[in-house]
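Long-time lurker, first post. I've been practising inverse folding by hand and with some scripts of my own, and I keep getting stuck on stretches where the structure tokens seem ambiguous. Below is the full token string for one chain I'm working on. Before anyone asks, I'm not after the true native sequence, just a reasonable design that respects the backbone. If someone could post their per-position residues I'd love to compare against what I wrote down in my notebook.
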């Protein structure tokens, strides 16, 4: 059985890279950085929308109880 030298894989494209390196090129590093920023932006937007939705539901529930009961 042939033994492969120690290596890892690019965090962006999964190509083999030398051990202890995370990216195969600067282009992959830039692309990965852009993808991470976009994911964080989407997460922030999601949590903000959820918080506003919960606040609206709570306010509507309070108003319904206040005016009906």
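-- Answer (accepted) --
I ran through it position by position. Result:
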């Amino acid at each position: 059985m042939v033994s492969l030298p120690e290596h890892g894989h690019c965090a962006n494209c999964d190509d083999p890279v030398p051990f202890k390196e995370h990216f195969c090129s600067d282009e992959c590093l830039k692309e990965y950085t852009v993808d991470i920023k976009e994911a964080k932006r989407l997460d922030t937007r999601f949590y903000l929308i959820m918080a506003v939705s919960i606040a609206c539901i709570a306010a509507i529930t309070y108003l319904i109880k206040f005016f009906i009961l």
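A couple of notes from the structure itself: DSSP finds one helix and two strands in the chain. The beta strands are 7-9, 16-18. Happy to go over any region you disagree with.
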